[in-house]
Each structure stands twice: as structure tokens, then as C-alpha cells.
Amino acid sequence: MTAPDRAAPNRNTLWARAAVDELAKSGVDAVCVCPGSRSTPLTVAFAAHDDIRVFSHLDERSAAFFALGRGKRTGTPTPVVSTSGTATANFHPAVIEANQARVPLLVLTADRPPELRDSGANQTIDQQKLYGDAVRHYRDLPEPAADDRKLRSLRTAVCRAVGESTGANPGPAHLNFPFRKPLEPVAVPGDVPEGFADEHPLAATGREDAFVSVHHAPAAPDDDTLNALADAIDGTDRGLIVAGPDDAAGLTRTAAVALAEATGFPLFADPLSDLRYGTHVETAPVVGGYDGLLAAGPLDGDLQAPDVVLRFGASPTSKPLRQYLRDSGARQFVVDPAGEWREATFTTSDLVVADPTKTARALAGRLEPRERTAWTDRVLALDADYWDAVDEFTPEAILEGDVVAAAAADAPDPATLFVSNSMPVRDLDRFGRPRDADITVLGNRGASGIDGITSSALGAGSATDEPLVLVTGDLAYYHDSNGLLALDRCEVDATVVLVNNDGGGIFHMLPIEAFDPPFTGQFKTPHGLDFEPTGDVYDLEFARVETLDGFRAAYRESVDAAGTQVIEVETDAAASHRERERLEEWVASDR
Amino acid sequence: MTAPDRAAPNRNTLWARAAVDELAKSGVDAVCVCPGSRSTPLTVAFAAHDDIRVFSHLDERSAAFFALGRGKRTGTPTPVVSTSGTATANFHPAVIEANQARVPLLVLTADRPPELRDSGANQTIDQQKLYGDAVRHYRDLPEPAADDRKLRSLRTAVCRAVGESTGANPGPAHLNFPFRKPLEPVAVPGDVPEGFADEHPLAATGREDAFVSVHHAPAAPDDDTLNALADAIDGTDRGLIVAGPDDAAGLTRTAAVALAEATGFPLFADPLSDLRYGTHVETAPVVGGYDGLLAAGPLDGDLQAPDVVLRFGASPTSKPLRQYLRDSGARQFVVDPAGEWREATFTTSDLVVADPTKTARALAGRLEPRERTAWTDRVLALDADYWDAVDEFTPEAILEGDVVAAAAADAPDPATLFVSNSMPVRDLDRFGRPRDADITVLGNRGASGIDGITSSALGAGSATDEPLVLVTGDLAYYHDSNGLLALDRCEVDATVVLVNNDGGGIFHMLPIEAFDPPFTGQFKTPHGLDFEPTGDVYDLEFARVETLDGFRAAYRESVDAAGTQVIEVETDAAASHRERERLEEWVASDR
């Protein structure tokens, strides 16, 4: 590790080293750096730090999504650094996604010194509160100086930002660093007084650990709340546990299983809940077919009406499930560590502001042990029937959901599986059968954009040695094609499943399909792009397949191979949508 | 033209038609639409309007820069439309550039209805004041309704936004449109009462012209100010007119020439001032060599010290010029129609808040006619010597500035020439000799980012039938490679001069060059990208040349040809920088 106190040639170097020192001591082990001049002190300090891996990115938008994906996978923020100017605004989409998906993210923007603001100076914009309310915390840092109090303030501010970006409501934090020239580590006599580090060891060197170690203490519900929950559960055989997209501060698999066993209720596991895949699905009552089941029509009799629903995570991806919950009339407990509402059907009756895992464990301990309820058995039987029906269905064209399902079914164990918006995550929800394999499924479901998908996936992949699979559509692939540069520059390997239906396939599911024009020109937007040459620009092999069998063969070969392969499956969105509807009818007729 | 009042099937359709109707009546003739569902009412209304050309874009970042470039070229805003969510944040870089470069831009974001805000609803983010202080005007529009007062409010708001985005301080304006389903033009019985249009003609149909025609009245300086200016000018032979990067509300060529003739002063014309090229350079005292002259060392004697400087436009691109003005001790009048400071050396002594063209004309009329001063003749002689020296200099490696200079020298007449940051605009400043040809030079010098360059150029190109030339670097080309999609989708042809020095060549000009690592890995960032395959992805021909002569031949062929050609010139940034320095010495020795 570099000794941040020794021989800092000028105040900027001293300052940036102190900031990076605190980041490393706070657990940061990687950074995404975008080249630029004003950020030179930070870049130099990061590059010199032995414990921080530097990922160099040339497009700030992709850089921020890469950092987001990595933070999502690790639970620790990966800072992203840029120079001043519009570079900083390119981070904005990822900042919003991090905010809404509760992903730790630290944005470190360099800025011109205060006297140059609003002056017409080059690359000088108003970076104050640039991301508005989308960040948990913002600080405009003071001007660097070899000053005891200022340096302690800086160290405190960095720890504060890390603390704000993690904890019960993880998200983005933004630190703005004004720097005056010289930005490089050139000697500036007198800038850092001789002996400064010896006279001010705490300011110059910090502590052995972080200057301020932030100890988050996730709260369990109090007794009254636990009793209310237990009473509601004890009073009925008809209950559900619904796990929506998971947060960094979410529900662990073991706690979820313990709760399902204690309540005897089925566990509806969103593909992004981290509960649809894992060894627990062998024994726990994990239901993955709810989306297809509910889309096929109302369930029979009292299956329509659970009495109590325990909800974790964000709002489920499945629209049929959201509608089912809305119409169920059940008492709905939402467990949310941040105390926020993420439930736009407005059916919550009780908000439990507490740590999900602690809540599940405490509740499981509080309940009288009981058998799996008859209601649960009926739900599980329906679910099994659903998967049988899906297996027996023979589509007449490539059903995009089959591609997504195969990518999950044939994924290595363990693996990280990143699914894009708009269709892959929905298709995985409907067609991804729970599997006894340690697959970490991730997606950007905070704001559900199609921007930054590739970068987010590669960032997640950079965090582990697990194989990485990305399932994406052609629009998302195009949108973040710059993100492919990270394959080489950040040394990430992936299998990219590119479902290419030449445009916005999801619009076939919306009423606008009936209005053409403007449907084709403005919504479907076929682009006719040939993505094969991206294999010549970036560090990847490109293969195109035309059948599901061809896909499965190429996919299995890719996940076993080194390097990155993009497997493009050309589909017809309209035909796939028709097959999706035909499968819904098939499921309904089978019931 | 569509009749916006007739048979609107529902309130959203009625509402969006009214908005688009007002835009068209306010002079908007094109729109950039990004596909999405929530924005369906706007998209459908734009697509149905006979007088508005729809440019469909798949990457919102590129879309906004395309709209920026078009607005920069035309002076009229080209609205950019997106769905809700992170799509809107992708506009942010272009919004900031539009703000700082004073380019008319209208951002129309669709939003979820108010009851879904902060609820966890899909693709719902906080879009309130999303761009902070970077917009001239923001309105969160009310919920659509077939309501007289609301529709009049909408029409007024649209006209207001157009008015705010144009005028003395052009820039971006943001309208946020909440829409509730159904978004498509499906019949909703009772939503628009029968006979509504007949009973409320003004609300439903608007006026024949814009609902509110905004009449900007650019102000000339008052007599006292004119007298002060005239006195300062009359009192000296040593004066300069400095024209920085131009605004939509800037100084016209004829007014600039009139002022130069009346004062007898030389006109230092920034490449982005719109004054370096044009028929006027044959007779007017246009100086283009100041950057190279001043970089080569101090001028002789009193050439160092003009008594009075008249400044127009933004801060000059040339750093040597900015330093020269700072150190000159001159009285400096800055004429700025918006009354803002864009002068970070803080040497302004008088700010004239008035229309530049009117000021120049009024001042020219007020002054006693006089001959060109001896001082001016000496400046012009120095300038002529400079260009001779540049002609005589024989570089030992490709000098990037020679490529940029050739692109300007051999550009068709007329043409639009878009120059990227960071080096092309600086190289044009130094090496672009004034030329008697109607070349409109544009660049993004508001915040001087390298983002969105290609899209800005293609947007500018879409506005005229003139040939379009873009001179860009490899980082900018990579950064906005998505913008190349507009070649086909928006039917723009261009000649793209790609100066590829494999990374951030500008960093060779900064002290960080001496610190390696991290110079190569984190600043220079060679990427080794082979851009030739972009020719197979997008609608363009790709050619690579290795010499200046090869470039000139390929370039001349391209500007005469249909379609788009990318001409890549591989250069060595370090070598080019050395040649640049050698040329500075050459110029100095020649003096």
C-alpha cells in the first residue's frame, strides 16, 4: 500500500491520496476511471494505490453502468471518476438506476475551482447537486489544502459518502472535487509544508482503519410488529410470500426458506429476487410459474384470495402478479428496510420498516411450527402443471422466452446471469423454471431502462470468477455497444445471448401495434443493423443461430469456452408474441 | 396539415395534438423521437403532422445531440421526445451543452401520471427539474383533459417554452408531460365530449398562428453606451475586435465587417465565430493566425498592448489569445446579449448588454470614418507572414493540424464544417487560414465535451442541402458511434475526417505526459480499436489513408461523392505534438 503521507509534492496530490486512502480503508477495491485532465489528482492517486483495481473506460455512461453492475454484485461501491463538464452528466442514467435499484455507487467528479464557476471557463459547468434528489448524499468538497482540519473533513466526508451509499437504503452518493492547477504530481515548493505529515499524522495519514467506520445496524421489527405479523399468519391457511427484485440489503436465501417453512406458505420468487435459483429450490416451496399461470386467466375459487401476503423486495416484475395481489383483498405486509413505498397498486396495508432477513428470521422463530398448508399444496400443484404445460407446448416459431429459459437452464453452476429490459427479464419471469443451481440473476429493474445493460453485466462479471451470461435484446445491445470495450480493457469474459428481433419487440404487446403508421416507423423501429462486425471492433466472437437447438449447442459451447462469444438468435417479435399468446391459451385449456 | 380539433378519440390525443400544433405554428419543422410507450401520444401527434419531419433515434443521448446540432444550424429548436425513466437522463449532456452554447433546444419528456410518482411504478423516476438550472425554463404540465382553460394553458406553455429557448439567450427548455393510459389513439367514449371543438374553438384548434407569438426585440445599446464605446475607439489607433464562438443571437458577417471598417481595427476571428470564412475575408481585415503567432512568443513592442478591445461571442478557443488579452492592459468591452460573463480571465472592464449585430451597426454608424490604422496594418502583415511560415514548414510526421486545415481549405463552397473537441477545433484555430468561401464552422464549445459530436454534426447536416464535413478524433468517434445510425435513419450524408491517434492525443500537451505510469494507461488510453468495421454496421464507406496527400485525394473524392465516407488518417499524437512545437519555433525564428 502506498503511504499517503509521504512526500506529497503538492496539495492536490496530498488531497487526492487522502480521499483514495479512505476509500480503500472503507472497503473499496476497484474504481472506474474515465480519462480527463481535471481529475488528474484522483486518477493518479487511484492508479498508485496497490489495493484498488483500476478499470479504465472511455465512455462515461458505460463506466457508470459498469460501476453500478459491479456494486450490485458485490454490495460495495465501485467509485466512478470523471473530469469536469458534460462527462459528469453522462453518469446521470446510472445514478438514477442506482438510486431506484438501491445499488451502492460513488460518483467522484472533478471540478474547476470555485472562482471559475459561471465564468465561461472551458469545460466548466454547474456540477452542484447535478443529480438532484437521485443521490443519497452530495458534498461539494472544499479546495484542497495541506490543512489539518480540512483533511480531517475530507476523510470524514469520504467515509460519510461510503456510509450513505451502503446500509439499509443503498444508493448513489456524489462528491464534487474542485482542483486548481497544477493537477499533476509536480513539486510545488511550500504547498505541503515540510514535516506536515509528522505534525499532523491523523490528517495526513488517517487511521489504520477507516477514519470513520460506519457501523450499520439493520433493525429487526419490534415485538408488537412481530406479534401482529404472527397473528395474521396464524389466523389463516391461505398466505403467500412474494419476493420481488432484491436489494443489496435484501432477503437471504436461508432466511426466505426459514420463513416459508415456518409459515407453510408458498414463495413466489421473482427472477431478480435471488430466490428462484439455488439449492433451496429442491425442498422449499418456490413458485416460478405465477406469471404464466395468472396471465392465462383467473385461478380457481379461493386460490384467487390469499388472506395474507408478506412482501419483500421491490415491486414484482410480473404484471399479472401485481394485478392478482391488487385484486386479492389480502392483508399485505411490505417489509422494506428503507421505509419506502415500491408498490404502485397501492394495496399495502402494513409497512414494516425493518431489515428483511432479520424480519424473516425473527418471524420464523416466533411462529408455531406447522405443516405446509393444503392451500400451498394446491398452488404448488398448479405450478408443477404449468411447467409441464410449458414443456409440452410446441411453438411454431422461435419463442423468445424459450431462448431465455434455455440460457438459465443451461447456465453453468455457479454463474451470474444478467437479463436486460424490456423483454428478457419478463421472459425469464415467465419461462425460467426454478433450478437447483447457484445462479445469481441480476437486472436493472430500478428504472427499467434499456441503457447501460452491457456495461452493467460486465461490471457484475468483473467482480467474481463465475461465468457471466448476459441475455439482451438488439436495442439494448445497440444502445450500449460502447460498453463492449470493457471486454478487452477490463478483462471480462461473457457469453452474450443477443435476441435480435430487429427493433422494439415489446411494442407488439401494446395497443399501438394496431396503429401503423406510426407503429413500424416510430415504435417497432426496425433498424436492420448487422451486429456481426461488432466482433471485429471489440474483443469477441460473433455467431448467429437460427433455431433453438442451434442456440443451445452454441450456448453450451460458449459457456465452456474462454473469451467472449455473442450468440445472436434472430427472432420474429410478432410471431414470438403470437406464440406467447398461444401458450397462454394452452396453459388455460390445460387447467 | 392535420386539423387538431377533429375527432380526437381521447384526451391524450387531443392534448398531444394541441402541443404539436403549437410547436409547428411556432416554427418547429422537425423533431427527434425516441421510441417508447409513455410518449405515445406525442409520437403519434408528431408523426401525423404534415409540416414536421420526424427523425427517429434509438439512443436518446445521440438524439439530443442531433437536435442540438440541428438547432445550432437553424436557430430554431428541434424538440427531442422520450418516454419516462432513464431515457430522459440521457438527454442531460446535450442539455448542458445547449445551455452553455446557447442553442435552442426543447426537451419533451413523457411521464407517468402524478399518482404513480415515487410509488415504485415501472420506469417512473423523478423528472421534476431533472436538468436543474441548465434549462431556461421548466414546466410540469397538468394532466391532459378536454378542458378549455387547461388546453389554453398548454398552448401558452408550449409557446412560452419556444420563446424561452430562442431570443437573446437561447438555450434548452424542458416540458414534462404526464400521461395516463390509454396512450394510443383509441376511442374513449366521453373523454372528449362531443362538440367540444365547436364549443371551445380556441382551446381545441388554437389560432391561425401561434397561440402566443413571442416577439423578441433585441436591444441596441443606448446613446450613453454608444458614446462611451465611440470615445474609447476614437481615442486610439490600437484596437482589436475579437470574435469568439458565435451564438444563435450573435454577430452577423456584414455587421462585423462594417464595424471593422468603421474602427479600422483588425478582426480576430475564432474558427467558430462564423467570421473566419466567407466572401468578406477578401477585403475585411480578418486575422486567423493569432493563435499560432501568440503561441510562438510575445509580439513586438506595442503590438503587445492594444488600448481597446471589442469582444463578441463566447470566450475565444485560443488560449494564447486569452492570455494575450488578459495581459494586454486594454480596456475591454464585452458585448453580450444575455448579460452573462463568458470571460474567465476576468479582464472585462465594460459589459454591454445588447444585441451584437445591432451594437456593431449602431457603433459603425456613430464613429467618424477613418482609415485602417497603421497598427492594424502591422498586425495584418504579421498574420500574412504567419501563414507564409506555415506554408513553408515541412513536418517530419503527419501534423494533425495539416489534416484539419486541408479539410477546411478543400471543403466545398458552401459547406457545413463541424469540428470536434478536443484537438480538431484547436487545430482549426491554429491552422485554418481564412478563406473566401461560405463555410459554416460549428463545434460544441459550450462545455467542450467529446460526447455527442457525430450526432451534433449530423443534426446540423440534416438542416441544409450543403455538403457536411465532420472532423473528429478517435475518442469522440468511439464515444458517439451510436450517432452513426442517423446516417441511414435520418438520411444525412457526410464526409467524416477521422484523425485517429489511438487515444487522448491532447494529453501529450499536458504535464501528465511526464508521469508514466499512469500516463499511458489512464490518460493517453490507447484502445487499439479498428474502426473499419463500423462501415459494415452503419451506412458508410470506410477508407484509411496514411499520408497527407492520400488524405487530400480521398477527401476531394468524398466531398464530390454521394453517401457517407469516413476517411481515417492514422497519426502519431506525440510526433504531431512535436511537429506542432517545432512549427512554433519556426514561426518564432521567422519573426
Word description of this protein:
Chains A, B: It is an enzyme of class 2 (transferase). Chains A, B: Residues 17-129 form the Thiamine pyrophosphate enzyme N-terminal TPP-binding domain. Chains A, B: Its cofactor is Mg(2+); Mn(2+); thiamine diphosphate. Chains A, B: Its EC number is 2.2.1.9. Two copies of one chain form a homodimer. With 591 residues, the first copy, chain A, is an alpha/beta fold. Chain A folds into three domains: 11-205, Thiamin diphosphate (ThDP)-binding fold, Pyr/PP domains (Rossmann fold), CATH 3.40.50.970; 223-387, Rossmann fold (3-Layer(aba) Sandwich); 394-576, Thiamin diphosphate (ThDP)-binding fold, Pyr/PP domains (Rossmann fold). Chain A has 23 helices and 18 strands. In chain A, the strands form three sheets. A six-stranded parallel beta sheet of chain A has the order 2-1-3-4-6-5, with helices on both faces. A six-stranded parallel beta sheet of chain A has the order 9-8-7-10-11-12, with helices on both faces. In chain A, α22 links the parallel β17 and β18. The N and C termini of chain A lie far apart (64 Å). In chain A, 61% of the residues are buried. Residues 1-5 of chain A have low confidence and may be disordered. At the A-B interface, α2, α4, α5, α18 and α20 of A face α2, α4, α5, α18 and α20 of B.
